[in-house]
Amino acid sequence: MVGFNVLVVVCVLYVAILFGVAFAADKRARDGRSQWLRGPWVYTLSLSIYCTAWTFYGAVGYAARSGLEFVTIYLGPTLVMVGWWWILRKLVHIGRAQRITSVADLVSSRYGKSNLLGVIVTLLAVVGTTPYIALQLQSVTLSFAVFASEGQAGFELPDLNATALWVAGGLALFTILFGTRNLDANERHNGVVTAIAVEAVVKLVALLAVGIFVVWGVAGGPSEIAATIDASPIADWQMNGSRWASLTFLSAAAFLTLPRMFQVLVVENVDERQVATASWAFPLYLFLMSLFVLPIAVVGLDILPEGSNPDLFVLTVPLHFEQEGLAMLSFLGGFSSATSMVIVAAIALSTMVSNHIVMPIWLSVRHQGASMSGDVRHLVLISRRLSIGGVLLLGYLYFRFSGGGAALAAIGLISFAGVAQVLPALLSGIFWRGASRNGAAVGLVAGFAVWAYTLFLPSFGPAGVISPQVLADGPWGMGWLRPQALFGVEGMDPVVHAIFWSMVINTGLFFLFSLVSFPSPLERLQGAQFVNVFEHSGAARGWAQGGVQAEDLLVMAQRIMGGSEAQALFEAEAAAQGKDGYLPDTSPDFIERLERELAGSVGGATAHAMLGQIVGGTSVSVEDLMAVADETQQMLEYSSKLELQSEELTRTARQLGEANEKLTQLSIQKDAFLSQISHELRTPMTSIRAFSEILMEGGMAPADSRKYSNIIHDEAIRLTRLLDDLLDLSVLENGQVNLNPQADNLADVLDRAVAATTSVGAGTAIRIKRDPVREDVALFTDTDRLAQVFINLIANAAKYCDADRPKLLIAVSKRADRLRIDFIDNGSGIPTESQVMIFEKFSRLSDQAKAGGAGLGLAICREIMDKLGGKVTYLPGQGGAAFRVTLPLAPLVAGS
Amino acid sequence: MSAPREPLFLARQNYRRRRLADAARLLPVLGGLLFLLPILGTSTGAITTAGGGLFVFSVWVALIVVAAFLARRLTAGDNAGPDGDSG
Lengths: 896, 87
Fold this sequence. Notes:
Chain A is mainly alpha-helical.
């Protein structure tokens, strides 16, 4: 007999394996080796969270009660997947193009980034999903109880509530660990998805094993099973046609609109090929999941005593035949079904709650603007973690107070019907440009209300919100408002009745209000982009040209996306515009792209609001839209060619402009260089000549002559140093330099550099902050030259940092195969217009006296880093002057 | 609105691809009809759960096979020609 303790141990072991899988997958993905993780098979298996514990255990119970009807729950999704070319392909395209993070985000973005709709859909999803999570907790605790009660006397029946609490707590922990590990730019969770794929295999294998055992081990073969079915109480085809059709429709609708399904179908999707494979592989999975349901049901009905719970046949049939191992496997299957559903549902709901409820509230509370506020990433992560805990707590409380039992078993369909209310707004949104925000809001609220009134509230039973009297006679005796016979239509199955009326009223009001309302410009723009997603309609723009500073945008983007991601985005954009560095022109195109990237982290509506705070004012006017619409057909034909050409021209012009500016500057510099060099050489020369003339005359005290020769000596050293620098630079520039690569540790090189700078100057009261752990990187490069660069940067910071208490942060980070060392001080930084020039020869920003050098330092640094295969660049937007040294991690080839 | 940008007639390869996409669009309609067949026949009686189950599961397998074929063909030509959504 399997004891309860053994069961707990097995569960803990299994969960530990899942933790391991999730951890390993996350690590692989971070190392960029996630090729097969993004393949179509993991994607297909991750869709299996559709099969929850309700379908794992419940399908058999369902079949034992009403025969083949259980299969409708799988037929709807099959039709949706098989018809991927129609809906899913478009959804996935839109999801990628618009960086959609949840089903609420999709609806909100489509209808003009309306946060109202985001809130409505989020609330609907929370109300619809909470009972479902309770159902999962119930199924896990029930299956625990089966094992416990099978154990002989003396074995205490465990406290079900405590079990549920433990399960809920464990799930919350797992979800928080792997679901909110980082604020992905695209909201993909490799670890979670891989763990779910493993669970999908476990539950399929478990159900198939029980099925094969039942068919061949118990009944004796397929023909015997057919005979058993014919002899069973469910032999007759007593199908209610309307239930069959509407449940198929309902499951298809729920498949698209359930938050957790949307998460794995659209948000976690990487490319279209995944959907193509899943279009047949997932129906195959569903087929295999339901193949043995009927045999298990009839064998259970046949063998087990009257009155045993058919929902647990998957467990009790193997136990009846003393098949402990099989029962354990089947238990793990049910456990997998429940946990994977809860994990993904919690992730999806927490994303929705934090993006559509917490962030907007936070934004409106803090009026001073998104660019000034603290670390947004931290806030978003915290709010997601709290939401996950909250969602699971809600599920647990529902489980506690609904009392479990039969009332919960029906909740699966009720929950489906609730979330299916999103369908009209979703489908019309991607196929009909006329669908409007008002229509969607009215339809959603009305459908939600009708669903609650006709199905959800009556499900609490006679003691619940709706009394038996209201159920029989309607509120205040108004017969036409009876919850299960609206408008006097009697005799319908309650579920069919609720689906019919909620869908009819929802869709009807949605179309009516869409037809009569006039959408806002942004809404029309989004409508066109969603409906015509395959035509790449890039004609209309969401943002007008404004005088916004790229540096402000960078500061905000860093706080939401994280430093390195934001810098990479800005650098790539600048490169695409033909510019160097991290600050691109703030063209409307760029702002639009930035908004989409931000939307991937905090949702469309929030991203729009945040950018609106910085860019200011309305983004697009009716006139802008009209201008686009007025373009003639001919214009359209030429526009793409023209666009290409003008883009090319703009880029060339920008490059030319920059080149020209640089040339002008260089010519000025060249003049300056000549006068500078003659001046620099002349000053020491003059004093050397003067003092040597005095010495030549002779006849002075030894002390004086020593003093004069000292001056001559100092001046000669200064001359030599200047000439050395010049020589160094010209050698570097001509490429005739010999490098001496050697193995060393970055920390040691930095130590030497810091020691050298602090010993040289008296005015180096700068405080240097370092991180010894991150600096522990093995190098193979010319470390003497590298130290020279570091010394220069540190000395510069010490010289020019104008803060009251100068501080220098040396931050080391690795990215792909490159090492980055950032030198960030807390001074006032370098003005944008000078950032290009500081690496040129003899360029000095402050006055010469203070600098005390010839302005060759950074130019030499740049040449050295060039020779070492790296770069030194100015890093804007760090709150002070910041230089980034980039170095390849691969060893430098000697003598190159 | 962008229809005039695309040519009116297509080369053989692209034409085939469009028709494959049409077939992929029709498949769920066909599947839906077949899945609804059993409930149309209830009035005449004489359908057992075993028989009906056999029918539903056979249609299911057929749908999976056809969908696999179409998905393979549709993604194989992914790089050929524009990814047009219109007929």
